[in-house]
């Protein structure tokens, strides 16, 4: 009985450690195809629907989106896919596009 309790406690401890390794990340994406002041609302809604996204701020003037997310639930590929799927391809601000090279 003591072994079962010990194993159960150990498994519970390991399961709860997963969130201890999670980190909040913030990235800035360059967002293409934003042509009017309504576009940021669409981009923000798409980003907000990605699991793990905690905040998204989209600027029409700068053509960027700054996104804060939990890195165990989302990644940059998830974020760029979300914007691309609603018609606004994006990439990390630090990346160069093929056209710019």
UniProtKB/TrEMBL annotation:
Residue intervals of the HMA domain? 25-91
Cross-referenced PROSITE patterns: HMA_1, HMA_2
* One Pfam family linked to the record: HMA
The alphabetical list of record keywords is: Mercuric resistance, Mercury, Metal-binding, Periplasm, Signal
Give GO MF terms, alphabetically. Answer: mercury ion binding; mercury ion transmembrane transporter activity
> Any idea where this protein resides?
Periplasm
Return the InterPro entries for the record. Heavy-metal-associated_CS, HMA_dom, HMA_dom_sf, MerP, MerP/CopZ
Q: Which region is the signal sequence?
A: 1-22
List the record's Gene Ontology CC terms alphabetically: periplasmic space
Protein's job: Involved in mercury resistance. Acts as a mercury scavenger that specifically binds to a mercuric ion in the periplasm and probably passes it to the cytoplasmic mercuric reductase MerA via the mercuric transport protein MerT.
Assembly and partners are described as: Monomer.
Q: Can you tell me which family this protein belongs to?
A: Belongs to the MerP family.
**Could you tell me what this protein is called?**
Periplasmic mercury ion-binding protein
Encoding gene per record: merP
């Amino acid at each position: 009985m003591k072994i079962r309790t010990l194993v159960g406690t150990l498994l519970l401890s390991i399961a709860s450690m997963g969130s201890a390794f999670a980190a909040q990340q913030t990235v800035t994406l360059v967002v293409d195809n934003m042509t009017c002041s309504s576009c940021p609302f669409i981009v923000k809604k798409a980003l907000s629907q990605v699991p793990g996204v905690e905040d998204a701020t989209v600027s029409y003037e700068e053509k960027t989106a700054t996104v804060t997310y939990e890195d165990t639930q989302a990644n940059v590929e998830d974020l760029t896919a979300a914007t691309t799927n609603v018609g606004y391809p994006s990439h990390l601000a630090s990346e160069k596009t093929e056209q710019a090279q």
